[in-house]
């Protein structure tokens, strides 16, 4: 099984969106360079960000998101983002009426079952869990191996928290990756396991 990684861009004060689910300038770093990040050429980053992000994206086999993110993005039109093979939606609700059953989206009740489904689909590739409430649930359940964050130099003051509603302390190891890009600091931490 591949590792489970909690990931998102985040403000320096720990938010992934404002109170109205708007990301503000959190993704400006994806337009701050001259190296195309994908085939579309729309996303251009610094060379340092490309080397880190492209390598990571290429390792992702499945992404776990909550129903809220799925609804906000309108399910990405049935096509997983960033070339990811499968999206697992952790939700108590069924798939939307009229949803294409051939689309590589899986609607699973409960975070443990959602991560297990994603691991099965991803095989030895990475399972990415979106930060926020779903990521916080996965962390609290002991399912996350690694925390990755793209820290952007903006302060939100309030909004949707990176770790969702986690209300207990969780220790991380020292950062094993610290990379400065244009308008972003890429960080990676392994989750410390209790002995």
From TrEMBL:
<protein>
    <submittedName>
        <fullName>Dihydrofolate reductase</fullName>
    </submittedName>
</protein>
<dbReference type="InterPro" id="IPR024072">
    <property type="entry name" value="DHFR-like_dom_sf"/>
</dbReference>
<feature type="domain" description="Bacterial bifunctional deaminase-reductase C-terminal">
    <location>
        <begin position="4"/>
        <end position="170"/>
    </location>
</feature>
<dbReference type="InterPro" id="IPR002734">
    <property type="entry name" value="RibDG_C"/>
</dbReference>
<dbReference type="GO" id="GO:0008703">
    <property type="term" value="F:5-amino-6-(5-phosphoribosylamino)uracil reductase activity"/>
</dbReference>
<dbReference type="Pfam" id="PF01872">
    <property type="entry name" value="RibD_C"/>
</dbReference>
<dbReference type="GO" id="GO:0009231">
    <property type="term" value="P:riboflavin biosynthetic process"/>
</dbReference>
């Amino acid at each position: 099984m591949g590792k489970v990684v909690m990931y998102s861009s985040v403000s320096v004060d720990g938010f992934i969106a404002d109170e109205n689910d708007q990301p503000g300038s959190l993704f400006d770093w994806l337009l701050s360079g001259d190296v195309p990040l994908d085939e579309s050429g729309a996303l251009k980053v610094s060379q340092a960000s490309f080397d880190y992000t492209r390598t990571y994206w290429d390792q992702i086999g499945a992404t776990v998101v909550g129903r809220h993110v799925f609804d906000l993005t309108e399910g990405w039109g049935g096509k997983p983002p960033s070339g990811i093979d499968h999206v697992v939606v952790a939700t108590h609700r069924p798939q939307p009426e009229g949803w294409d059953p051939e689309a590589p989206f899986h609607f699973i009740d409960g975070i443990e079952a959602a991560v297990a489904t994603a691991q099965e689909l991803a095989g030895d590739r990475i399972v990415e869990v979106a930060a926020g409430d779903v990521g916080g649930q996965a962390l609290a359940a002991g399912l996350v191996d690694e925390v990755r964050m793209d820290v952007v130099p903006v302060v939100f003051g309030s909004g949707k928290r990176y770790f969702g509603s986690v209300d207990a302390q969780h220790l991380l190891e020292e950062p094993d990756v610290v990379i400065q890009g244009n308008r972003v600091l890429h960080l990676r931490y392994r989750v410390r396991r209790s002995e």
